[in-house]
Each structure stands twice: as structure tokens, then as C-alpha cells.
């Protein structure tokens, strides 16, 4: 019986996000991160990406896990639509770059970059750490505007609505800021 209770506690600790998030309207922390797109490693710099338009920054617990794979597939399917609004997608986890090189090809389908934050520096800066495992990211998504402000935030341990909700926020922002 005790083993079952401990197992349930561990399952809950992994599944539950910290529910902390940067508030909408706050300044998004600047960062650069070792990333992979289609298996190719490069340095992703937030400020450079924001020159092109908004950035959809999503945090996820671990590459190749069930929920993170579902979420990566969903973002990969939506990337072309995000691009129509000038948005860039970046996923970040505490995984190491070697693992993310594979994940960026197979699960992200070479459509968007994933960043390696094994020291959880960016995860902590964005209040995206998991409550009971602070070196892992919880599942949280942000839309950051070119003026480096948090425009939208969505936290849910389920991967299901992150794309739908961030896409709606990107479309709303784009309608408010038509390209010239």
C-alpha cells in the first residue's frame, strides 16, 4: 500500500506544473540558448527573433515523453500558420542538446527549434519550473511581442490547448499590429 501511495505522489509531482508564470504585460527576460532545428545546432537569441515578430515560447517537461511528443506534433502542424502572422515558435526543456537534436527532427518534424536549458536558467527566469521538480520545466506557453512584453500566458499540464490558445493570441496581436 505504501508503495502505491509513493508512486501516486511521484506521478502527481511530475504531472502538476508550478502554476507560477510571468504576468501579462511584464518584461520578458532576454536570453540566448543552444537550440536545434531539424537536427542542426545553433544559438537562438530571443532579441534577434523578436525583430521578425512575436515569439511563441513554450516550456515542456521532457523530450520524447507522451505529452511532450503530442505537443511537439501540434506545434509542428501549426508552424506555417504562426509564420503567416510573423511568429516564431521555440520550445524549451531541461534536456541536453544531443537529445533535442533528435527530438527536433522526429517529433518537431524539422518545423521549429527546441532549446536546451539543462541548468534550468531560462526555465527559472520565466517562472516555468515544475513545483516538485524545480530542475524540470512545467508545461507553460507564452506569446512575447517584439517590444519584449509578455502578451499572453497559458499554463496547463495537458498539451491539448497550448497551440489553440497561443495561436488565438498571436492572431489577436497581429490584428492589433498590422504589418506595413
What features would you describe in this structure?
- The chain is of the alpha/beta class and 180 residues long.
- It is built from six helices and seven strands; from the N terminus they run αββαβαβαβαββα.
- The protein has helices spanning 2-15, 46-50, 66-84, 97-106, 121-125, 162-176; strands at residues 32-37, 40-45, 55-59, 88-93, 113-116, 140-144, 150-155.
- The chain has a seven-stranded mixed β-sheet.
- α4 (97-106) links the parallel β4 (88-93) and β5.
- α3 (66-84) packs parallel to α6 (162-176).
- The protein starts with a helix and ends with a helix.
- Mean pLDDT is 89; it is low at 1-19.
Q: Briefly, what CATH class?
A: Alpha Beta
CATH second-level architecture: 3-Layer(aba) Sandwich
* Number of domains as seen in the coordinates: 1
User: Unreliable runs, pLDDT <50, ≥5 residues?
Assistant: 1-19
Average pLDDT = 89
What is the number of E strands? 7
List the strand order in the largest sheet: 2-1-5-4-3-6-7
Overall helicity: 25-40%
Strand content: 15-25%
Taken in chain order, the helices and strands follow as HEEHEHEHEHEEH
| General shape | globular
By helix and strand content, what is the structural category? alpha/beta
Task: Count every helix, treating DSSP H or I runs of 4 or more residues as helices.
Answer: 6
CATH topology: Glutaredoxin
Q: Main beta sheet, described?
A: 7 strands, mixed
Amino acid at each position: 500500500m505504501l508503495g502505491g501511495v509513493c508512486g501516486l505522489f511521484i506521478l502527481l509531482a511530475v504531472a502538476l506544473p508550478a502554476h507560477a508564470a510571468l504576468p501579462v504585460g511584464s518584461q520578458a527576460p532576454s536570453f540566448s540558448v543552444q537550440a536545434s532545428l531539424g537536427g542542426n545546432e545553433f544559438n537562438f537569441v530571443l532579441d534577434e527573433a523578436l525583430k521578425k515578430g512575436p515569439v511563441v515560447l513554450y516550456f515542456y517537461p521532457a523530450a520524447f515523453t507522451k505529452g511532450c511528443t503530442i505537443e511537439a506534433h501540434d506545434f509542428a502542424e501549426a508552424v506555417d500558420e504562426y509564420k503567416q502572422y510573423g511568429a516564431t515558435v521555440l520550445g524549451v526543456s531541461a534536456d541536453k542538446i544531443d537529445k533535442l537534436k533528435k527530438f527536433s527532427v522526429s517529433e518537431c518534424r524539422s518545423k521549429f527549434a527546441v532549446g536546451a536549458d539543462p541548468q534550468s536558467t531560462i526555465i527559472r527566469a520565466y517562472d516555468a519550473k515544475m513545483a516538485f521538480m524545480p530542475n524540470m520545466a512545467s508545461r507553460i506557453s507564452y506569446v512575447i511581442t517584439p517590444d519584449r512584453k509578455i502578451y499572453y500566458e497559458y499554463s496547463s499540464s495537458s498539451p491539448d490547448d497550448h497551440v489553440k490558445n497561443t495561436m488565438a493570441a498571436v492572431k489577436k496581436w497581429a490584428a492589433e499590429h498590422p504589418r506595413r
